[in-house]
UniProtKB/TrEMBL annotation:
Entry protein name: Pyrroline-5-carboxylate reductase
Domain Pyrroline-5-carboxylate reductase catalytic N-terminal: 10-103
Domain Pyrroline-5-carboxylate reductase dimerisation: 169-263
GO cellular component labels: cytoplasm
Reactions mediated catalytically: L-proline + NADP(+) = (S)-1-pyrroline-5-carboxylate + NADPH + 2 H(+); L-proline + NAD(+) = (S)-1-pyrroline-5-carboxylate + NADH + 2 H(+)
Keyword Cytoplasm: yes
Species this protein is from: Rubneribacter badeniensis
Keywords, alphabetical: Amino-acid biosynthesis, Cytoplasm, NADP, Oxidoreductase, Proline biosynthesis
Amino acid sequence: MAKKASEVEVGFIGFGNMAQAMARGLVDSGVLPGARIHACAAHFDKLQTTAAKLGANAHRDAGEVVEASDFVVLAVKPYLVEQVVAPVRDLLADKAVISVAAGRDFAFYEDVLASGSRHLSTIPNTPIAVGAGVIACERRHSLTTEQLETFESLFGQIALIEWVDGALLSTASSVAGCGPAFAAMFLEALGDAGVKHGLPRATAYRLAAQMMMGTAKLHLETGEHPGAMKDAVCSPGGTTIKGVAALEKDGFRGAVIDAIDAIQGA
C-alpha cells in the first residue's frame, strides 16, 4: 500500500534553488513537515542555514540522506549526476529516485543506477515553491505502482504533474521550466508600462501579477482556448484590440516562439 504523503521521508542530494523550491512548497503547503526532509550539499555551513529555515535535516553526505529517505531527489547539475550517484549506487537501489536534472532521461539512469533501480526523470519549475508549480515527468519510468501513487499524492498537491514522452521532456522543460523567466519579464514590462502612465510600481506589479494568475487559472479550470479568451476581451474598436494589434506589429508571438526555438537549439 502506498504511504500517505505526510508519512514519506524525502531526501535531496543537492540543495540549490530548485531543491529548495520543492522543499519549501512541501513544507509551506502543509504537505510534509520539515522534519521529514533531508538534504546534503557541497557547502555544509550554508546548507545548515537554508535547511534550518524549513526545519529540515542537514546531512554531511549523500549516504546519510539516502538511508534516511524513501524518495531521493537528485538535484545536482546534470554533469555531476554520475559523480554523486557512484558512492551511493547500491543504497539507491532500494529507494524511489526522482531526477530533476535536465537532459537526464530514463535510458541515462538505466546505465548509471544499479540494475533494477526504481527511478523517474522529471523537470519541475520554481513556482512549486508556492504550491503552484509544474512537474513535467517522463512517461517511461520504473517506479512501483505504490511509489508512483505516493509520488503523485505528495507532489500533486503543489504542482501540476504532466506526463510526456521522453523525446518531449526537453520541450516541456522549455515551456514550463524556462517559462517563469519569460513570464517574469512580461510582468516587469507591464509594471513598467503602468509606472510610465502614473501607477505606483508596487500597484502596477500587483495588478499585473494578479491578472496573470487569474488568466492562467481561468484557462486551467475552463479549458477555454487562449484565442477565445483573448477575443472575449477585445470589443470591436475597443482599447484591448488596439493593444493586441501593437503586440502583433512588434512580433510578440514570434518572439516567444523564437525563445523556445533558441532553447531547443542550444
